[in-house]
Amino acid sequence: MNWLTNFVRPKVRSLVAPKEIPDNLWVKCSSCGNMIFHRELEQNSMVCSHCGYHMRLSAKKRLDMLFDYGEYKRIELPQVKHDPIKFKDLKRYSDRLKDYRKKTKEDDAIIVAHGTLGGMPVVMAAFNFGFMGGSMGVAVGEGIVAASELAVLQEAPLIIVSSSGGARMQEGILSLMQMARTTLAVNKVKEKGLPYISVLTDPTTGGVTASFAMLGDVAIAEPECIIGFAGARVIEQTIRQTLPEGFQRAEYLLEHGMVDMVVPRKELRQTLSRVIGLLCNAKPAGDLIPLDSGKKTKADDK
Amino acid sequence: MNFLDFEKTIAELESKIEGLRYMEEADGINIADEISRLQNKVNKQISSIYNKLSPWQRTQVARHSDRPHCLDYINKLIEDFTPLAGDRCFGEDRAIIGGLGRFEGRSVVVIGQEKGNDTKTRLEHNFGMAKPEGYRKAIRLMEMADKFNLPVLSFVDTAGAYPGIEAEARGQAEAIAKSIETCLKIKVPLICTIIGEGGSGGAIAIATANTVLMMEHSIYSVISPEGCASILWRSADETKTAANALKITSNDLLSLKIIDEIIPEPLGGAHRDHAAAIANAGKVISKHLDELLVLEPDAIHAHRQEKFLKMTRKDTLDG
After folding, report:
1. What is the pLDDT of residues A239-251, one digit of tens each?
2. In a domain, A138, yes or no
3. Least confident of A16-25, A96-105, B125-134, B299-308
4. Residue A65 is part of which domain span?
5. Chain B: nearest CA to A302, how far in angstroms?
6. Would the CB atoms of B258 and A177 count as touching at under 8 Å?
7. Do residue A237 and residue A254 come from a single domain?
């Protein structure tokens, strides 16, 4: 090593090296395979403009999209015991947590925030599927409890947007207990006569579906999302049959009476606002400020 | 008696004793001393094995086909048992047994999963794996208990809720969620005893109770060790490792403050002495029921809610 390699070479390199091109300008739709320009995709709320496939949204993007002007206040969630059963599979759970925290820049798989929707105060919790498959451990359970308590305190409706593979195995039985705790929490909201709206997005399965996600006063699903209790593979292995077309999709649940409606992402904000307004007998909210195509909103500035 | 793979030495000794007994009868020679010497040896062997069962071995004991099942507990502990059938929506699910009866003279509602004892009864009870109609029957009976102010005793023994097309179509997730909700809503004492396998959502659906008891060698888990091994280790060979990692034994759950008390089992597990195991359960259930019955309905309701609200919190786990 000398001053040349340390100083000159990087300088030269920066002169001759091609400018870094982000490799994620184009996104391939996992349903139809078409390439979509990233800006177009974002303007379209991560819905494929070719086939209408709804891609998964991060919790933050979800809240940006749903709150008025994309403005909201996040609440800090209670501290939970880190790696409570000292779990280790091929990797330590505590290392896994660190990795996901670094990757997602979030503490766990849920964000809780309050703000307004169609001018009405609401509390919202959204899942991050990108954080360990949105799995529900103690932190997520505490998130739902905190969101419910805040809704009761503010006398505001509660909206939970689920996207989760179910209970988090790495916290063992403590994760299972969150099914009881979250059920208890959303019931506190319901008992106060406040609306609890469950929005089910891709995927909502296992212990999350079998607790608070299926207990909404109104249940709204995104098109084609997977909603179910047992995983498709487990069912196939148990019954040794192939599953019917569209099994456990939002439309299948609608047909079987398990959700109230299947609503495209673009209409979700309007629908939520209308449903809550009707449940609370509030005056019509008027037209919501659209978040779509080109119009700059405050959410874009963030 | 069916022996488990780690009970080989016990099996050998017991077959020796069996052989001696046969000789005794046949030849009329008194070899009682030899038998009692061997019996002592067996007991020592059993206690040394059962005192240090690994989580996977406990899983095997919890699933032992000779273990007392829900109907055995009901037959021994409940007088005038009157089964009630159906969810009034779709059908009757025999994976969940429910009905009225008397526990120590007091009217109660009983709900529990039954696995069956032979091929015929296992099929009849769908191996203890309930479908939505089973959970909806449980909901109906809990609501009835609430209406008539009767305590509810639940017995958990299931690998999990049934994973099948029709179960999903009829809303397995919704049925379980509503069952948990009903457990939390009722204002009568709810005491749950995990007698064998406490399999995930299928178990907690009727285990969100004021008091949760576990038979010493039962297990209670978010996922089966096999399922966990296949997902996280991608290998069925790691089932034992997964059983260790998941913390599923009664001791683990007591120290995590998920359950309230462990019910001791007779030497060598409940399957070696049904009557003693069930009597132990009866005593412990009775003690906890007496404690709850002094409370007002609202206090019973609040007790359950506060218990689950505090559960798994940092200060609860550390405290």
Report:
1. 888 899 999 999 9
2. yes
3. A16-25
4. 57-281
5. 34
6. yes
7. yes
